[in-house]
Write a structure and sequence with these properties.
The complex is a heterohexamer, with three copies of chain A (about 240 residues) and three copies of chain B (about 280 residues).
Chain A lengths: L22 E5 L7 E7 L2 E12 L12 E8 L14 H14 L11 E11 L4 H15 L9 E8 L2 E4 L3 H6 L2 E8 L4 E11 L1 H31 L8
Parallel strand pairs in A: 4-5
Antiparallel strand pairs in A: 1-2, 2-3, 3-5, 6-7, 6-8, 8-9
Helix pairs in contact in A: 1-2, 2-4
Chain B lengths: L2 H9 L3 H9 L15 E5 L7 E7 L2 E12 L10 E8 L14 H16 L9 E3 L3 E13 L4 H14 L2 E7 L5 E9 L7 E8 L2 E4 L3 H6 L2 E7 L5 E7 L4 E2 H30 L1
Parallel strand pairs in B: 4-6
Antiparallel strand pairs in B: 1-2, 2-3, 3-6, 5-6, 7-8, 9-10, 9-11, 11-12
């Protein structure tokens, strides 16, 4: 077992237990997409494109009263330590599903009957927490596409390493640690839209971890807002290191 | 379109009725909100498998079979045996299931069941190594969904747990020539704990356990927690495009923990009965 | 070569040459299916579901004057000595086809134009003769689904081991024996609906074997009848050991 | 929908006419009920293959090619070489064939041809072992269906038999270092017998041999038997959703046995001609 | 490096640098196809079938103003030195595409709106230059099918071996040589419809090679013509050795 | 239907306008016929890859990543390392791209980029052998198409070249025990030349370089040539169902050769900058 927290309570990369990695979000990075975003979250580098609302093919799959949301989380073959086969793995298919379900509650799909909205996530480099970074970036890309939303969606993982509840595990902490729990919330409506958990947590640790994740999400939400405001209203340098 | 989503379209009108019942603390089939349907577990039903179990929860019926074979470890975990959990939602199981490769719902189901087993360390994979980096035992658990009436996550999980817990395997040793020798004698597969998953459905603002297909068709969100023998959480998964407020998340853990304790006794009894 | 028949003329499991393994049939074992059945035939354990008649998708595949029968014979991964990959093998596809052709003559498909009837067989445990057991169970499940039938269909294999024509080979006999011939008949109309043969038989042995199979089918037909009668008219314990 | 089934829909109206002819002992093309169309067999047409044969039966045309390679035996048959028979119903072959993986009809066709060869023990697979459990000869027979006018089962079978019977392979030996050495000298592949398949079509109550596509489109049932040199039955397969009464089954064997004897002479001659 | 040209300037099979291998073309070799041809070009043996123009399925893929041309180049498993898997490789898919684009300019597709024309090539034996032989044969099969054409299409490869520009590389020359360049032209309209190049050529060598290929195509065009004339107007032996 | 073909249908009416501009030596975006859009190349952007590059040509954006792994050589080239170039036209990249396995256009794109690298012998594969016939370095170059606005052939090719040229790999050696040892020290991947591809689009009778999506939608033919450091042609590919007359073929080579010289300087600079 690797020692992941030093005697000063700091983690291998120098972070405190309740500190996220550096985050940078850019909006409108692709020309063809109806909306797009790019996020760097730790070593994660993810680009997201939104296409839609547009007509459904084949037509009989369309829903008469609302739009269909489809998400595709895909990892570039060079994004991981060992080359990943380009074909979607079962892991990627599951993550695509939970990302879709994490985003859907925030979208007013009833405004776009008989259409589909496609969200494509390409993980250019993967680190711990890629699904959370992907959700955070996707919500920004959906806003950039002008899709009507009830709230943003913002995600952050929390977990346990060396017996302590800590925020936002990186790759090594995820691999060597005791638990990892990705959480997504709608920050204004105070709703949880994603929750997964691998590992071992007592119910008390769970509660503490969950609150830590919610607080971190509120902080990351500010980065989302700034990125969108900077694109639409300002010229400032985007991001937060 | 997946089976569950089709059902949503068909049964949406039913929701108001179900919600009204729930608000009175009742369900359409007369159960209380936190009552399971009758659970029936039979083990050892497939002689050719190393372990097997049929689980019926109400009209939901699944069979799990364990095959223990000799294989090669993954290059990055040379000191670990293999565990593969696969779930097939068979076309037998409902009018909505289709033949073909698993869709995203079947993949999620399989992966959640897998994680419950894996994260609880029910089986110590490091004890399944025969020759370090070369030969290990590979545990394949295949779950056949035979009849679908809701709560597949728990049914598949219980069948998986019961089939693993009652598995036996030929005693095997590595000869001086590096060949693996399997003896006639059969030994039980060692297990460390019995992970129990509990899935809650949230309909409107109420939680229920063990939802039927009809209830799943109108549920807003689903959340599953898996607990080990000590009541610690080992895995969790929220599903469906509904939400939980922050208190509901904590409440869900509490409910699930209490129900897991209750269900654990049923599973333990069936394992004990099997072992005689 | 293993000796498969002892000096008393008995087989390794104690059966005479013209004796089948124990058979047990249950009807209506699945709730969702329109018809269903479960058969134990030796170590074979097979469950069958019938769905239909129902609308064909896509619609242009529908036949204007009759229903389409589709059978799917599938083996559970744990049904065989070595784990079977869940994906259908070429063998399973061929068996699905011959089972469909063995059942179709008994069905009055003209009564259900523009529909499809799906028969799904799941082999939970496989022994010699699984396709015959599957046909026998499928006919029962079709009757349970209320599909109009001209006759039942009932199947049994016959073969040759240690130079003798014998009925109903089990796994070992099939593997070590000299010939295996699955036969299905309609017992009242006296028609053959399935016949396959692997191995070596003189034309004379063929004739003897075929007659032995037909006689066995008539016997198994009684088990089918009893199972159906017990479900619809009686309360008796079903089966025959 | 498969090619044959499409044809059924199109040509159903033709059936009455064909049946009327058959009842008078005649066929639309003037043949008697138990007459084959002209059979033309050429061997050695693909120089890069170890053996090859083109078979034409009337307008039906198929090519089989044999490749003999070195491979590994299956774990459960370490003392056996490999035989793989594959049939591709090419989109060239008719307006109904489509590109793509083989459908159930093509799979049945390949498996019936394979069984005829395998069960007759035409090739003694135990003689194809180079290093027990490790290296064996693998015989791949691939059949390309080029033009379809009925009776693919027999045409593919004859092409397979003729290509195997005329195959040669480099003499090979295992060196002291365990390496396999292939010499320049070529030796013929040893064969034990010549299996002959005969396929009967039943239309109404009549049996015919060597049906055309048009006849197959209206046939009720199809039955194939394969015979060895001694007239023993080695494989059988009834197909199509029609039936045979019990006497018809026995009659089918008799007819097939007599025709097999006749066809055997044609195949034998083509093999003999090839071997010079 | 194998020496591919001897001191007399002759190649391993005795050809001069500007000489093609023997060519034989037959027309109408398949009964079911609307048009068909067979070519032997060196050791290449290729059979081509044309089906169409016929209705497009599914219908929404049809073009309102012209026919769709689809080509499928496929190698028989026994056509190569080592057995080829029957499933189309990426190489076969690319070649199918370039063959289609090489043939399309010659076809008056506007005459057949809302239809598809399928060209199926089966390589029974593969040698160097199989795509060129396939194009040459396909054009003949299209003519045999009666498809309206602006011109024929005829193809031949050219390349470089032992430092010299040479015509029509065989398998060994292709493998051991320095460059291979397949070219297809419309011989009367003087248009290039296919050009590919692997290897190394100076721009000057390229020009020389290209002219050599064009000249060879004109020669092969005569073989195409003779094959078609012999089928439709004559009884002469077809081919040229 | 493929993205490009769909675009053809939509934009056919645009052709007359584009042709009119071209006849005056102008393009819709103001460029001259033989002008590229601005090219931006960044390298080293993916730390987990051995080499990487993002190339933007106008609004077209692609990323290539190199992974260097240890693998086994092909049986017929025991003395050669492996080079695999794969291109994914991601659904992110345009409204016409769909998820799923690569279609024939993506396959052609990948194979043309691959041939440019392979035929130019940019990487000497014989220097990537670790243990003859057993262990070699395998170079995987994966190109993600992120945003499509024409000229993917050149953009993917430049990204591939820049990512290979800036790749590093752990120094590795074969121990006495035959095990491969990777040291911490990283060494640059040796390259022999910088192949530059130039793609011309022919619209009506004019050639242009670096076509946009809109121009590609109306182009008659496409031709790509790849040149090495000495200006020799290493690969060529004509595409699309249009034609070139014989003089146009020669003209295309001339234009491409001149443009390759110009672009080479841009690529070389980006590589030099990366190497510091």
């Amino acid at each position: 077992m690797v020692e992941l927290i030093d005697e000063k309570g700091l983690r291998m990369d120098g972070r405190r237990v309740d500190e996220t990695r550096p985050i940078k979000i850019e909006v409108g990075v692709l020309k063809n997409a109806d909306g797009s975003s790019y996020i760097e979250f730790g070593k994660n580098k993810i680009i997201v494109a939104v296409y839609g609302p547009k007509e459904v093919h084949p037509k009989h799959l369309a829903l008469p009263d609302r739009s269909i949301l489809r998400c595709r989380y895909h990892m570039a073959p060079f994004s991981t330590d060992t080359r990943k086969h380009p074909q979607p793995s079962r892991r990627e298919i599951e993550i695509s599903k939970v990302i879709s379900e994490a985003l859907e509650p925030a979208l007013i799909l009833e405004e776009y009957p008989r259409t589909v909205i496609n969200v494509y996530l390409e993980v250019l480099q993967a680190d711990g927490g890629s699904r959370c970074a992907g959700i955070t970036a996707s919500a920004v890309a959906l806003a950039d596409a002008g899709i009507s939303m009830r709230d943003m969606v913002v995600a952050c993982a929390v977990g346990k390493i060396s017996g302590k509840v800590v925020l936002d595990l990186d790759d090594t902490e995820d691999k060597e640690g005791e638990a990892d729990m990705p959480v997504a919330i709608m920050p204004n409506l105070n709703q949880t839209t994603l929750l997964q958990l691998d590992g071992i947590l007592t119910p008390e640790e769970f509660e503490k971890a969950f609150e830590m994740a919610v607080n971190a999400c509120r902080h990351i939400y500010e980065v989302q807002r700034k990125a969108l405001i900077d694109k639409y209203f300002g010229e400032d340098e985007v991001g937060e290191e | 379109m997946s089976a569950v989503k089709k059902a949503v379209v068909v049964e949406r009108l039913r929701k108001a009725q179900i919600v009204e019942f729930l608000s009175k603390g009742k369900r359409l089939d007369g159960r209380g909100l936190l009552d399971f349907r009758p659970i029936k577990i039979e083990t050892g039903i497939i002689e050719k498998a190393n372990g097997s179990a049929r689980v019926q929860i109400g009209n939901t019926q699944v069979i799990a079979g364990v095959k223990i074979e000799i294989g090669e470890p993954f290059p990055d975990t040379p000191e670990m045996g293999l565990l593969v959990v696969n779930v097939e939602v068979l076309p037998l199981s409902s009018a909505y299931a289709e033949p073909g490769p698993p869709d995203e719902e079947a993949i999620e189901l399989a992966r959640v069941v897998d994680r419950g087993i894996r994260e609880s360390k029910m089986v110590d994979l490091s004890k399944l190594v025969l020759i370090s980096g070369k030969k290990v035992h590979a545990l394949f658990v295949d779950v056949d969904i035979l009849d679908t009436d809701g709560n597949l996550f728990d049914a598949a999980s219980y069948a998986t747990v019961a089939s693993i817990a009652t598995s036996t395997m030929p005693k095997s040793s590595v000869g001086q020539d590096g060949q693996i020798k399997q003896e006639d004698e059969s030994i039980p597969l060692q297990i460390n704990c019995i992970p129990i998953s509990i899935t809650l459905a949230k309909i409107d603002s109420e939680f229920i356990v063990d939802p039927t297909s009809e209830e799943e068709a109108v549920m807003d969100a689903r959340i599953t927690f898996t607990f080990d023998d000590d009541g610690k959480i080992r895995a969790g998964q929220k599903g469906q495009p509904g939400t939980l407020d922050f208190n509901q998340v904590k409440l869900a853990v509490e409910i699930a923990k209490a129900k897991a304790k209750e269900i654990r006794e049923i599973i333990k009894k069936s394992i004990k009965d099997a072992k005689g």
